[in-house]
Specification:
Layout lengths: L3 H20 L6 H25 L5 H25 L3 H26 L10 H19 L6 H33 L4
C-alpha cells in the first residue's frame, strides 16, 4: 500500500487545504502561490499513474484513491473559486463538472455491483477533460479576476470547454452503461 504512486496520491489530497489556505492569505502573491501548489498537486495525478505503470505498483488502494483525489481537488477548487466568481457564468460549469462527477461515481459503483465496472472504466476522453479542468482551474487561481478580467474570462472559457468535455464523457459512460440501465426487471 505504501508505494510511491500511492504516497503521491495522498500528497495530492494533503495539498488541498494548503492551496485553499494560501488562496485566502492577505498577501498579493496568494493567487500565484495557490495556483503553483494546485499545479504541483495536479501534476501528481499524471506522475502517480505513470509511476504505477512504470514500476508495476498498482494497488487496490491506489485504484480507489486516485479518482477520489482528482474529484476532491477539482471540487474543492471550483467551490472556492465560486466565491470570487459569484455569478451564473461561473456557477453553470461548476455545477456541470461537480454534478457529472457525482453521477459517474454512482454509475461506476452501481455497475461494479453488477460485476460490469469495466464498461465504465476511465476513458481517454475522461483524461482529456480532467487535464483541461486542471489547466482552467490553475489559470483561475493564478490571477486576480478584478485586476486581470481578460485572463479571468480566458480561464472561464477553458472551464466551459472542460464542462462540455465533461458532458460528452458522461454521455459516453452512460451510453456504455445503457444496456444495464434500460433493462426491464
Amino acid at each position: 500500500m505504501w508505494n510511491l504512486p500511492n504516497i503521491l496520491t495522498l500528497l495530492r489530497i494533503a495539498l488541498i487545504p494548503i492551496f485553499i489556505g494560501v488562496y485566502y492569505l492577505p498577501w498579493e502573491g496568494r493567487h500565484l502561490a495557490s495556483a503553483a501548489i494546485f499545479g504541483i498537486a495536479a501534476g501528481t495525478d499524471w506522475l502517480d499513474g505513470y509511476l504505477a505503470r512504470k514500476l508495476d505498483q498498482f494497488t487496490p488502494f491506489g485504484a480507489f484513491l486516485d479518482p477520489v483525489a482528482d474529484k476532491l481537488i477539482v471540487a474543492s477548487a471550483l467551490i472556492m473559486l465560486l466565491e470570487s466568481h459569484a455569478n451564473v457564468l461561473f456557477a453553470l460549469p461548476t455545477l456541470v463538472i461537480i454534478g457529472r462527477e457525482i453521477v459517474i461515481s454512482a454509475l461506476r459503483e452501481w455497475m461494479a455491483e453488477l460485476g460490469n465496472r469495466t464498461s465504465v472504466a476511465v476513458s481517454y476522453m475522461g483524461k482529456v477533460k480532467t487535464t483541461l479542468q486542471m489547466i482552467a482551474i490553475a489559470i483561475l487561481l493564478a490571477i486576480n479576476p478584478v485586476l486581470y478580467p481578460k485572463l479571468d474570462l480566458m480561464g472561464i472559457a477553458l472551464l466551459y470547454v472542460a464542462a462540455l468535455l465533461t458532458l460528452w464523457s458522461m454521455l459516453i459512460y452512460l451510453k456504455a452503461a445503457w444496456p444495464e440501465l434500460s433493462k426491464v426487471s
